[in-house]
Specification:
alpha+beta, single chain
């Protein structure tokens, strides 16, 4: 091998960041990165952990919804969902032992102004 030949090193793709002027689809990679980080941490099925991480990442807490961490009889939830309203669309995440790997997607916003169907819990912290 010719040691004088130029070498190329692979360039890492830039880490996703919040794009305030972008679409929900533009922000899905960043949302997914945050979700994956929390899912791999000590509180993988804690709605508060996801909301706090998304707020720390720059998402608007007032635009978020989250489901309960426990079932109606007090057992840990099989899965939880959380969302961020982004214009007329929603960034939605779902995690929990019943679904395997975390799921993140963009869905249409509900006409009610929210993102999640069913009962959600207040984000009052």
């Amino acid at each position: 091998m010719d040691s004088s030949a130029p070498t190329s090193s692979p360039t890492a793709a830039p880490a996703p960041t919040l794009e305030p002027n972008g679409s929900a689809a533009d922000n899905l990679p960043y949302f997914s990165q945050i979700v994956a980080g929390v899912a791999g941490g000590p509180n993988p099925v804690s709605g508060r952990a996801y909301i706090d991480a998304l707020v720390q990442g720059g998402f608007d807490k007032a635009a978020m919804q989250v489901t309960q961490d426990e079932s109606t009889i007090g057992n840990p939830a099989e899965s939880i969902e959380f969302s961020v309203r982004w214009g007329d669309q929603c960034l939605v995440g779902q995690v929990g032992p019943s679904i395997g790997a975390p799921v993140s997607t963009v869905l249409p916003g509900l006409s009610s102004g929210g993102c999640l169907i069913g009962q959600t819990r207040p984000i009052d912290w």
